[in-house]
Design brief:
By secondary structure, this protein is mainly alpha-helical. It has helices at residues 4-12, 14-21, 26-34, 50-70; strands at residues 38-40, 45-47. It is 66% helix and 8% strand. It is elongated, with a radius of gyration of 20 Å. The model has no long low-confidence stretch (mean pLDDT 76).
Length: 71
């Protein structure tokens, strides 16, 4: 994928080194936080990303409050 010079540049950069260390579970962390809402058969519940769920809650609350203000 990456050339030898690109690999060297990535490993010398502190951020690049951190990404290389965490490259195995970083996509899993993103999926856990921003993943789609799916049905979990083991818990019999819908499961969604934690950040996405929080943002949806804030969106619903803001729409509810704006409706009360417009009345």
């Amino acid at each position: 994928m990456a050339t030898e010079s690109q690999k060297a540049a990535i490993t010398t950069n502190a951020l690049g080194a951190a990404v290389l260390i965490h490259r195995q579970y970083f996509p899993l962390m993103l999926q856990d936080r921003f993943g789609d809402t799916v049905w979990d058969n083991s818990t019999q519940q819908f499961k969604g990303g934690s950040f996405r769920s929080g943002l949806q809650l804030l969106n619903v609350l803001s729409k509810g409050y704006s409706d009360e203000i417009n009345l």
